[in-house]
Amino acid sequence: MMKIRCVVERITYQNPENGYTVLKTRVKGYEDLVTVVGNLLEVNVGSVLLMEGSWKVDAKYGRQFNVISWEETLPATVYGMEKYLGSGLIKGVGPKFAKRIVQRFGTDTFAVIEDNIGLLIEVPGIGNKRIEMIAASWERQKEVKNIMLFLQEHGVSTAFAAKIYRQYGNESINRMKENPYKLADDIWGIGFKTADTIAEKLGFSKESFVRLRSGIMYTLSELADEGHVYARKEQLIFKASELLEAEESFVVMTLDQMIKDEDLIREVKAVPAEKERKELPEEAIYLPPFYFAELGTANKLLKLMAQPAEDRLWVQLMKARRESGNENLSVDVSRIEQHVHMEYDEIQANAIRQAAFSKVMVLTGGPGTGKTTTTKGIIAAFRMYGLKILLAAPTGRAAKRMTEATGLEAKTIHRLLECKPPEGYQKNEENPLEGDVLIVDECSMIDIVLMNALLKAVPTNMRLVFIGDIDQLPSVGAGNVLRDIIDAGSFPVVRLKRIFRQAKESRIIMNAHRMNAGKMPDISNGKNTDFFFLEREQPEDAVLEIVSLVKNKLPGYYKIPSSSIQVLTPMQRGVAGAINLNLVLQEALNQERDGLRRSGFVFKLGDKVMQVKNNYEKEVFNGDIGFVESVDMQERMLTVNFDNRSITYEASELDELFHAYATTIHKAQGSEYPIVVMPVLMTHFCMLQRNLLYTGITRAKKILVIVGTKKALAYGLRNVTVTKRNTLLRERLEGNSNSSAEG
Ligand SMILES: Nc1ncnc2c1ncn2[C@@H]1O[C@H](COP(=O)(O)OP(=O)(O)OP(=O)(O)O)[C@@H](O)[C@H]1O
Question: Which of the four pLDDT bands, split at 50, 70 and 90, describes residue 275?
Fold first, then answer.
């Protein structure tokens, strides 16, 4: 083992899945650039590294330094200083000014910036404004470097240093020392395990309360990420003990204390009388936000049902019913049919009549069953009576589609509720929405927290129409809200089933219904079809085929750019997973050589990217897709164009972006694309499920190409073991949830 110090000149290769990195570096005493290989995900061009490792001769690439461990240090040589200053880390200094500064001050450069920054005025072209910029950025970098050192000392990846600094500022290190577990609560991307590594090094005991508490919190939020609104007590104790490697009795004691402290809420689920003797009551443990979201949703929906609307349509219908003695009297659908030039079938007409006298109702059905057509009729009925209608959907794309289909403006739920960080939603109980009816599309995507926020803003006299397809994947966030509302049986539900002639001509729609019923799709490839199946058994062959489809075949045949073709895959990892497909497709489709790096990914001009986290400050949300429209290597920033809005990202924020040449089917929920290419292979087996495949193929509007094997398709279609999500919403809506809540 030996130690060498180097300056990073170029990052030649990085594998984001395992961190393997190849660098070209300059090392004192070596004339040529030295190749360095190892796990070096978080380094930047210009970084000065002190590395420990050994030399090795690779048959193909020659002499290389194999890194075992490394740390980043401030450069000590003039050359290193120039590289560091010019790397873009220090705002206001690019390579040109870096050179001039170093030429003027030599090895004293850093000392000057540190103690006597005013002297920089002696450098040609540098004015007071630039000096201020450099000073602020230097301070920040210094602190970020300190945080990096602290993290390195504690054996933790330095990738989050900038984020920690943004959250805690100059207090960062003190905060981490005080209670490292706070990091997991406060900083997106840092989990219990990272915090635990730091805590262990700092000497926190395995049985300390903060550790046990954090582990329990983490277990609950993991369960929430899997879709559960609460944890069953035994499930929580078991999982948390496993994670914490602690005895169950410690976990139980901590849990009890947390419930006493109102850190968590416990509710005892009632056991129906006939089972009373056989079953112990189930204890549900909630993180408070989920508890209040579930309770709030249930109470508000029941309250809305109990309160009549006050609009003209309601008043006139009630009057007509009283006078005629006909309890079923509703709007005249034939008048609406004339208005919208459409003949509704019996179920659709019923849906319109039902909507006219419902306070809360659900309209559900598969693709092509007429949800949109019927919604237009419902809207026409409401408009005939002068009702003010609000339209909303959970994602930007779904809202856009709703606007196009109805001719009325539909907003995303976030915009409807006027989400303004950091205060949150401006529309709420005190400042409710104004209007007579709220119609919400793609409701299967709404989780319990969003539903509660939405309902808070709904005044009690407002009508609600929920539209959605319950066979799609459930919401990414916790809950099974639409299904629970339907299953509760407390609200009118209209289920559309018939597929109309136009829709019948689409093999995508017909196959979606077959697959939803568990049958194999019709995959005989022929002319004039929109559903193609290309048999490829090996993942490597499937990937080659996908690249050729996206790059040449489909654009050539359908005369559309590659950028409007979307690859959807069942999972992130593996050869035919999103990570690898993105690397391969980026290489095939984007000729740019350089870009900004983050965790092994390179973001280049022209790249198709997806925001993967709601960011209220930037007003970009999970699932939004855009294109990189500029990259500033000096300032280490880039801008992404999302539907004609330019959003800027600093390098440290790039973990909010994924490449989106390929995305997972989960991430594509609520979006539709003209052409979808979808690998379905046995290597995806752990993700293959009927509702996943169904959701994937229904994202395609014009053309769908599946690349894979019949065996994998059949396997997925048989798999209906949708893991049950823990929620008590249905019970609460049925009105028989026991409510002995504590906490
Ligand atoms: N009553 C009807 N008579 C004739 N055609 C109909 C009728 N209802 C719907 N259709 C036709 O069926 C097709 C599918 O309808 P629509 O787009 O409303 O379904 P959808 O459930 O909204 O579908 P998706 O979920 O795929 O968007 C459309 O071409 C529509 O014109």
Answer: low
